[in-house]
Design a protein that fits this description.
Largest sheet: 4 strands, antiparallel
Protein name: Site-specific integrase
GO molecular function: DNA binding
Distance between the termini: 41 Å
Helix content: 40-55%
Number of helices: 32
Pfam families: Phage_integrase (PF00589)
Organism: Leifsonia shinshuensis
Strand content: 5-15%
Keywords: DNA recombination, Plasmid
Length: about 850
């Protein structure tokens, strides 16, 4: 590689980026996604179908007959349907026009602030105006606006609309695919409702659905939504988009998901630079060329975007602001000092504070000057005109080492503060998960509206699905439903019988389970939050020893350092992973294949059976890093209500990684093994993670090196023999004791003189719980004898043993599976998101 292609500061990359062929020299495009344009919202041309014939000007009785020909019901229900249509049609007949649509337009209801539901009779009546309106829209007689349709239509509008579309095979296939999608019943209900609204207001058949039409409908829906539910309707039509994309109904080059079409995918270097509005055209092109060269060395997209932000927003845009006449990289002393004064602090909601990443920014800007000087030697025509003296003097980095030490001290203090609180957080999420699981099971099993759990009485009721779907519709509009809402599409809510707020128990149980699973996996593995979200069914491996024993392994995919690693799963970790798999397979039959959106890389992965996925909106997808952080933060806030030491304190996903590293090294694990488990490329990085107990780290590490050098001279580093491997396997056989298995490392003797009940390395088997009960009764008998004899030292020793025994029993009971845990290999489903 030529010197002109190498950065003088090196390149750090989270993972190897794909080659997109971007040289950064082309003119910036307005919007781009890979090789396809971002979808622009554009409603399709109206092409109103006539599923039951031309009813635009037909008499009232013909409308009634057409409506009664679909969705056959009892005579009483058909009579209510007929009355509703007849009353509404008679109301429209009072307005001028040759067709029903012209009469509707002349009625003024499109601009009315009262709404059509104001004409509904008393609840005891057998007809409603809103029901008659909904039927005429479903029969394709009327084409209302989205605002009127959303606030006026009955709650089960999608059922009567879909049933009325005779001959629309595309709509039937699309409906079947949505019904088969692995999402919640509420999401399917919402998707079909949105689909019916879109087809009705755009006046098209299902075959005319386009990506632009879906985007246009989504924007229109947000405009008529209230502030309360706008966030929940960000990607209305996302499931329809995914179904049609997977069925190859969209043109080539359409983005994979609606998210990509909404926010856009990866930007070129030119687009990223232009987002900061650089005024000087020459410097703009220089930055594009320089960053493109750096990116060609294998820099991933996230690192590339950080480089653009540092050099464009935090360097040159600030230079142009403090000195608008600056046209080259040659900065005078006044301009440099003004830039430093500007970037040394950052603006926050509380005011300006010192910038913590100032040294990284200075190194990046200094690299710009030194790289250009180096590259100009081999390509003077391109880089020579921009060679300039670096304005950052060497003395500016004098505080770099001190700043790093201050940062390490802050991190160490943070870890020191959170270590004793970890157990409280873990106990809390376990208790909440068990409580919500019991409440949900009791609420589902109860045939009455009142039930009892742990001595507390609760009230159970089901809120109708239209309460969330139609926030503007009043009770009369919702009462005008032509069909009964299905119970499974409603929200199961419970409330304490003695008062208090009601909760949607299914959502709360889901949140409690995933909060528990996230915290447990993070603290038991020490993986990064990105690696957590990338765990899939394919990450589970097993190693079978020669004696038949199976060891479970967790494969962590390459992440920050592009290094794949394997973590042996402890019984606790295996229990958590098994519960996650059981939850997914019980709900969907197999873990669905989903695409994970990486917000840093701005791209989707290939469909995989990710473990940490759940229904969000109208689709099932992998949780976002923001969701993970929010769940942990909420759990910390709940714990703060019981424990004052949690006030104002929260955990981040990376806190669990530091606590995991600290626990590993300070419990005797060699630091190089800890580095391998954590995926660190350098032992120094691992030392930084366990800086809370720096003396212990150094002492353990140096003792390990001394022992290894003494026992394993250089000439003995060779392949293991058969006898040595047998000795290694026999070590694990000797770890099996009466109550379970011992977790002491290979080559170490029993450090507790076989006092297994007291030993923290003992893993008790669930079937030995009865044996623990027997040992407890024996210890209690010995304690009574010791009290009678006055053996105070013996009493103290027995109490310590009892504490250890009870702790181990509680932990074993908590981790005991309810039945056989099956971890099958993943099966592939036909439906792909």
């Amino acid at each position: 590689m030529s010197r002109a292609m190498v950065s003088t500061t090196g390149v750090w990359s989270r993972r190897e980026a794909p080659d997109d062929g971007d040289t950064g020299s082309e003119e910036p495009s307005k919007k781009s996604w890979g090789n396809a344009d971002v979808v622009e919202p554009l409603a399709p041309q109206p092409r109103l179908p006539q599923p039951l014939g031309d009813l635009s000007a037909t008499p009232i009785e013909a409308l009634v007959a057409a409506a009664c020909s679909v969705l056959p019901r009892s005579a009483i229900q058909l009579d209510k349907r007929s009355r509703s249509i007849r009353r509404f049609a008679e109301h429209l007949s009072a307005f001028p026009g040759d067709t029903w649509q012209q009469r509707w337009d002349a009625s003024g209801w499109e601009s009315s602030t009262t709404g059509l539901m104001s004409l509904n009779p008393a609840p005891a009546a057998s007809w409603t105006m809103t029901s008659g309106f909904s039927w005429l829209v479903a029969l394709r007689v009327l084409v209302p606006s989205l605002r009127v349709l959303r606030t006026t239509a009955v709650s089960d509008f999608f059922k009567i609309f879909i049933a009325s579309q005779h001959g629309d095979d595309d709509l039937a296939a699309l409906t079947a695919a949505v019904e088969a999608a692995p999402v919640s019943a509420k999401s399917r209900h919402q998707t079909l409702t949105d689909l019916s609204y879109m087809l009705a207001v755009q006046a098209i058949p299902a075959s005319d659905i386009t990506p632009g039409g879906l985007m246009h409908f989504g924007l229109a829906l947000r405009e008529v939504s209230t502030a309360r539910d706008k966030n929940t309707r960000k990607l209305a039509g996302a499931l329809v988009w995914q179904v049609l994309f997977d069925a190859d109904k969209f043109p080539a080059g359409t983005p994979v998901t609606m998210r990509i079409a909404t926010v856009g995918g990866r930007k070129s270097v030119a687009e990223m630079v232009d987002s900061y509005s650089v005024s000087n055209a020459g410097v703009r092109q220089l930055l594009i060329d320089y960053i493109a060269h750096r990116g060609a060395l294998g820099m991933d997209y996230s690192t590339l975007s950080h480089l653009v932000r540092a050099l464009t927003r935090n360097f040159w845009c600030v230079i142009e602001r403090v000195n608008p006449d600056q046209t080259s990289l040659e900065l005078d002393e006044a301009t440099y000092e003004a830039w430093r004064a500007e970037i040394d602090t950052v603006q926050t909601t509380e005011g300006r504070r010192p910038r913590q990443s100032i040294w990284d920014l200075l190194v990046t800007v200094r690299a710009l000057y030194l790289d250009i000087q180096s590259w100009a030697i081999e390509d003077p025509a391109r880089w020579g005109p921009w060679v300039a003296r670096c304005p950052i003097p060497p003395i500016a980095s004098r505080g770099y080492s001190a700043g790093r030490r201050r940062q390490a001290e802050r991190i160490a203090d943070r870890t020191r503060t959170r270590q004793p609180l970890l157990e409280l957080l873990v106990d809390h999420v376990v208790v909440v998960r068990d409580q919500m699981t019991a409440l949900l099971a009791a609420a589902r099993a109860s045939a009455e509206t009142e039930f009892e759990v742990n001595g507390v009485r609760y009230l159970r009721f089901t809120s109708p699905p239209n309460a969330a779907t139609f926030p503007h519709a009043g009770p009369r509009a919702r009462r005008g439903a032509a069909l009964e809402p299905s119970p499974e599409s409603g929200l199961l809510r419970i409330q304490r019988a003695d008062g208090g707020p009601s909760i949607e128990i299914q959502s709360e149980e889901t949140r409690a389970f995933w909060t528990w699973a996230i915290i447990e996996v993070l603290r038991l593995t020490g993986i990064r939050h990105e690696e957590l979200l990338e765990l899939s069914h394919l990450s589970i491996r097993q190693y079978r020893r020669s004696n038949g024993e199976v060891v479970a392994l967790l494969v962590v995919t390459p992440s920050k350092t592009d290094r794949e690693r394997v973590i042996p799963m402890s019984p606790e970790l295996l229990h958590v992973v098994a519960q996650v798999i059981r939850r997914q397979t019980d709900k969907f039959g197999a873990i669905p294949l989903v695409r994970r959106w990486d917000p840093h890389e701005r791209q989707h992965t290939e469909p995989m059976p990710f473990l940490f996925q759940r229904s969000s909106g109208q689709t099932t997808g992998v949780m976002s890093p923001t969701t993970v952080a929010r769940m942990i933060r909420r759990a910390c806030q709940e714990v703060a209500g019981r424990y004052p030491q949690f006030a104002g304190l929260t955990f981040t996903p990376h806190d669990f990684r530091r606590l995991f590293a600290t626990d590993l090294v300070n419990n005797g694990l060699p630091i190089h093994i800890g580095a391998a488990l954590l995926g660190h490329a350098s032992l120094q990085t691992t030392r930084g993670y366990v800086a809370v107990f720096d003396e212990d780290v150094v002492r353990h590490y140096q003792l390990h090196l001394t022992r290894r050098r003494r026992l394993r001279p250089q000439d003995e580093y060779r392949d293991t023999t058969v006898s040595e491997w047998q000795e290694f396997e026999e070590h694990f056989d000797k770890r099996k004791v009466e109550l379970g298995s011992c977790g002491r490392p290979y080559g170490t003797p029993c450090a507790h003189e076989h006092a297994c009940v007291r030993c923290p390395m003992l893993h008790v088997e669930p079937q030995m719980i009865a044996r623990l009960d027997y040992l407890e009764s024996d210890l209690l008998g010995r304690r009574e004898r010791a009290e009678a004899e006055g053996w105070r030292g013996e009493i103290e020793g027995i109490d310590v043993t009892l504490d250890h025994l009870r702790t181990k029993r509680e932990r074993t009971i908590r981790l005991r599976p309810e039945g056989a845990v099956d971890l099958p290999m993943p099966t592939f489903r036909a439906f792909v998101r």
